[in-house]
Amino acid sequence: MSEALFEQIREHLAEVTLEAVVAHGALALLVEPAQVLAVVRSLKDSFEFDMFLDVTAVDWPERQPRFDVVWHFYSTKHFVRVRVKARVPLADPTVDTLVPLYGSAGYMERECHDMYGIVFRGNDDLRPILLYEGFEGHPLRKDYPKQKEQPLVPYRDAKP
Amino acid sequence: MSTQPVRPAPAGAFEYMTTKKDEFVGWARKFSLFPYPFVTACCAMEFMSVSSTLYDTDRFGAALPRFTPRQSDLLMVVGTVTHKQAPILKKVYEQMCEPKWVIAFGVCATSGGFYQNYAALPGIDKIIPVDLYIPGCPPRPEMVIDGIMKLQDRIARDRHPIINEKF
Lengths: 160, 167
Prior knowledge:
The complex is a heterodimer of chains A (160) and B (167).
Chain A: H1 2-12, E1 17-23, E2 26-31, H2 36-47, E3 51-59, E4 67-75, E5 80-88, E6 94-96, H3 105-116, E7 119-121
Chain B: H1 21-30, E1 35-39, H2 43-51, E2 74-78, H3 86-95, E3 101-105, H4 107-111, E4 132-134, H5 141-157
Parallel strand pairs in B: 1-2, 2-3, 3-4
Helix pairs in contact in B: 1-5, 2-5
């Protein structure tokens, strides 16, 4: 049943997707960063993907462009998932926010901004949510030193 | 008007005792520990187990948690403390009145455990002094009881200088 739906989506979005494969039972679409908002709007309006599951990123330190931004959506009508990916470079890790479409995207975009430094254009509340004010860097990037700490309270054994 | 004469004590009655101030105060303090549970992670399950009926820390006078640091004298740090939590822990410790003791409950509070990264504090003794470490992930209730008894022994043997010559 989901095969037919995936085929419809593939046809409908053929012009804006760079790649469309079925992996682990979900349709994975690779799109240009500028097309994300249009693709997701189309998924939501035409194919009833009404639930925003997650947004995260993948860091490929050797690759250009370096980051994958990955969104997952679920349809409570068709009971299937779809994954949308976009590649953004280190110099400008920016994609459009999905808050106008899914209110719940706000918090998850904040977390993704904390951990990977992805900038969500249009989300005007990208304050730290899991990290704290003053934390430098993005800990889930591969070039963040594994044991680097940024303590808020000075250590008792620290030399003054 | 006449005052009642003081009745002499019956033979064998317990009227006086002699002891040393530190021993007396230590004995009183070791059986009246009021814990403040600073509970942040999964060790909390073991803390619930050790304080409830089956293991029952009330037997040691250490059962009644005070949810304000100002009324407590035993800070039990139960679970991982992150760098984001550290200022809160420090403030709670500073709000407690002397005399006060600190137990690091579980391996995360003791040393950070297996967390060695941007998020976790590698042991609460980096920011506050700790009297007793209970390792384990999580510790068995028997270990916690053993720890509390060791702390009680130490309190009983300790000097209690806050009670001074005016006592």
